[in-house]
Amino acid sequence: xxxxxxxxSQLRAMPNVSSAVxxxxxxxxxxxxxxxxxxxxxxxxxxxxxxxxxxxxQGLPVLIVQFLKGGIGQGPDHPSQMGQNLxxxxxxxLDCVSGPDVSDATRSAVQALWKHTQTVVNEGKYGLxxxxxxxxxxxxxxxxxxxxxxxxxxRPAHVEIILTGPQMPDSIIAVADQVTEFRRNYVV
Length: 188
Known about the structure:
By secondary structure, the protein is an alpha/beta fold.
């Protein structure tokens, strides 16, 4: 009878095999899209979260940015991690934004979050970036429409962007690949 050996997994380099990653010649990078989810009732965030969770589960890094939600100290330096691939940040203000009249501190916090968002999108760090209630941030004068258009046009090709909000500007809708409007149809 042979002595029992403990089961051990070992990795070793294959002889004469380059360590460089080789991509199949038919594989190409998938170009990211710009999607818009809109509704007057603001009841579609669950649908967006399902899509974000699905993308994160597939291994792509996802960032959810909530510009108008504050109050919990969850700014760019303190993201919540929802699993390995899903980061979630909010405005680092003590208040939630519900209109154009905001304190200077809140306006500064939204601007800092916007600047951080532009940086990470341009770095291509995330495969999907959700910009929640961005249309309201534009409508309230907290983020400039032309800055968003520039970001969408100059982002790395692989970065997918989802924009949400009830009143998306026409110029943003014009550059979107997909616009989804959630409506409630009541049967009488």
